[in-house]
């Protein structure tokens, strides 16, 4: 019986010790997750800020050097920061008054999903694989979704942007 009474405090001490370690590990994991969410939230804010300021240089600094962008109307994925900058600048050249507003931002794991509305007036030439398309003076207002995969450095490594390209072209008067 004495041996049994000696073992009970030892078992309780071991349970307490391992229980505390589990709590410490859980707390550390929660703090790491909170920090990760803060980084992705800041990235989302910086994407919106760059668009608000029409600052394509600031925008592409949020992308990894070898990032990929996939979007409607592009025959193949856009590769690299400079190509992404040129693509986005082409939209601003065609619609200098273009605005983008995110209506929903979701963060899950290493992905950020944005949903929003873009608006603009087609007053400048629009670059296309076949050459510049002259402006029509027409306006566009369309919904879009943007899903970004973020790397360990907190930069966008993959951008998948979706919008109705047919509706976009109809609104700009490029097709009937």
Q: Report the CATH topology name.
A: Nuclear Transport Factor 2, Chain: A
- Describe the main β-sheet briefly: 6 strands, mixed
Report strand order across the widest sheet.
2-1-6-5-4-3
Task: Supply the number of helical segments.
Answer: 4
Describe the structure in your own words.
With 176 residues, the chain is of the alpha+beta class. The chain has one domain: Nuclear Transport Factor 2, Chain: A, CATH 3.10.450.50. It contains 4 helices and 6 strands, in the order H-H-E-E-H-E-E-E-E-H. The chain has helices spanning 2-52, 56-60, 81-94, 165-171, and strands spanning 63-70, 78-79, 99-108, 111-121, 139-150, 156-163. It has a 6-stranded mixed β-sheet with strand order 2-1-6-5-4-3. The longest helix is centred in the first third of the chain and has 51 residues, at 2-52. The chain starts with a helix and ends in a 5-residue tail after the last helix. The relative contact order is 0.14. The model has no long low-confidence stretch (mean pLDDT 87).
């Amino acid at each position: 019986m004495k041996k049994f009474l000696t073992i009970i405090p030892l078992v309780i001490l071991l349970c307490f010790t391992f229980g505390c370690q589990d709590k410490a590990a859980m707390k550390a994991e929660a703090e790491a997750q909170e920090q990760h969410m803060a980084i992705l939230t800041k990235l989302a804010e910086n994407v919106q800020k760059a668009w608000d300021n029409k600052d394509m240089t600031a925008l592409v600094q949020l992308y990894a050097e070898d990032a990929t962008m996939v979007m409607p109307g592009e025959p193949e994925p856009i590769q690299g920061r400079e190509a992404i900058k040129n693509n986005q600048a082409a939209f601003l050249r065609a619609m200098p008054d273009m605005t983008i507003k995110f209506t929903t931002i979701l963060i899950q794991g290493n992905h950020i999903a944005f949903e929003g509305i873009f608006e603009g007036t087609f007053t400048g030439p629009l670059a296309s694989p076949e050459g510049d398309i002259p402006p029509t003076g027409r306006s566009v207002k369309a919904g879009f979704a943007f899903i970004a995969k973020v790397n360990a450095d907190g930069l966008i490594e993959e951008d998948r942007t979706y919008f109705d390209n047919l509706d976009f072209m109809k609104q700009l008067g490029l097709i009937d």
